[in-house]
Amino acid sequence: MSIYDFTVKDAKGQEVNLADYKGKVLLVVNTATGCGFTPQYEGLQDLYEKYNEQGLEILDFPCNQFANQAPGTEEEIVDFCQSRYGVTFRQFAKIEVNGKNEHPLYTYLKAQKKGVLGSNIKWNFTKFLIDREGNVVERFAPTTTPESLDEKIKELL
User: How large is the C-alpha radius of gyration of the chain?
Assistant: First the structure.
């Protein structure tokens, strides 16, 4: 099993096979529009603009499991991110990252890299960095800023 075995829905409800991202460096993030970490969208967009042509893709999965900080529809979330932060990377449908309804992608990611306090995602803006071969290289806490990932991403590219 690898990350390329999963299918997810994008913000428009279209099925996306993650095998489409083979050969890319991926940064997978569970996000929220009403969180104290929401301004990290700006840093994520900066990384995307800086490294997308070299093979970086950011996969944004809104999650409303933490204090209901991702309210609204997928369309509303996309509109907010584009108008407020100029987001151009791919945004996906809302998912759950913990519990009985967690998306299988997150079950896999959490099994590959546990956090400091175990496998569960603790909050919005937890980040997983995946190399070009689909290996989950590292997991980062919500407090880890996108800017601080610059060197690690550059190494994988």
Answer: 14
- Tell me whether residue 81 is one of the annotated catalytic residues: no
Q: Could you say which of 35, 44, 58, 93 is catalytic?
A: 35
List the CATH number of the domain containing 118.
3.40.30.10
- Residue 80 in any domain: the answer is yes
> pLDDT per residue over 73-114, tens digit each?
899 999 999 999 999 999 999 999 999 999 999 999 999 988
Q: What is the pTM of this model?
A: 0.95
User: Sign of the CA dihedral 139, 25, 73, 111?
Assistant: negative
Q: Name the DSSP letter for residue 136.
A: E
58: which strand partners?
A: 27
